[in-house]
């Protein structure tokens, strides 16, 4: 075995599930941020966690509102996910800029992309500083899924965004 850095390690664990973290901007619009640092944390109660950079607009909005929807985007959003990762929601309306069709979620003010395989509607329980990121620990209020849609994954570290190939 050879010693590796974290970026090389992400290649060795590829593919990694890709999520779009949906949070609410101050003006009520939905902000989208692609993040792979996401994990299930507990079955009972159902909890998930995601890590966002300390300066992340998305992380800030989740900490301010206490609400988030973690989604697994469908394959039609491949280019939009890449574009969303290259700008900040603090100055860009990523939904409008990337012409993403959105859908309402009952019981939430946050919308999600219409092409979504899985949506986890969650409430922030705790935010913990972890190195250069902040870990957002959230209790899932409800799961919404559509198994007919193919979710996106980050391949080769983050060199390629594409669905997993079955078989």
From TrEMBL:
> InterPro entries attached here?
Flavin_Rdtase-like_dom, Flavoredoxin, Split_barrel_FMN-bd
Name of the protein described by the UniProt record = Flavin reductase family protein
Say which family it is in. Belongs to the flavoredoxin family.
- Which keywords appear in this protein's UniProt record, sorted alphabetically? Flavoprotein, Oxidoreductase
Which top EC class is given? oxidoreductase
Names of required cofactors = FMN
Please give the Gene Ontology molecular function terms for this protein: oxidoreductase activity
Which Pfam family, any one, appears in the UniProt record? Flavin_Reduct
- Superkingdom assignment: Bacteria
Q: Where is the Flavin reductase like domain?
A: 12-160
Question: Can you name the source organism?
Answer: Flavonifractor hominis
EC nos: 1.5.1.-
């Amino acid at each position: 075995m050879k010693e590796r850095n974290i970026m090389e390690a992400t290649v060795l664990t590829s593919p990694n599930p890709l999520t779009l973290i949906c949070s609410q901007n101050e003006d009520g619009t939905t902000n989208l941020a692609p993040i792979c640092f996401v994990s299930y944390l507990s079955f009972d109660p159902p909890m998930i966690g995601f890590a966002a950079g300390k300066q992340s607009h998305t992380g800030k909005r989740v900490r301010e509102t206490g609400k988030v929807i973690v989604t697994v985007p469908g394959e039609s959003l491949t280019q939009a996910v890449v574009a969303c990762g290259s700008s900040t929601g603090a100055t860009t309306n990523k939904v409008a800029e990337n012409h993403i069709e959105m859908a309402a979620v009952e019981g939430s003010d946050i919308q999600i992309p219409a092409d979504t395989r899985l949506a986890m509607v969650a409430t922030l329980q705790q935010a913990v500083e972890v190195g250069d990121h902040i870990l957002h620990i959230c209790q899932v209020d409800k799961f919404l899924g559509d198994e007919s849609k193919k979710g996106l994954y980050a391949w080769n570290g983050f060199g390629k965004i594409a669905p997993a190939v079955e078989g």
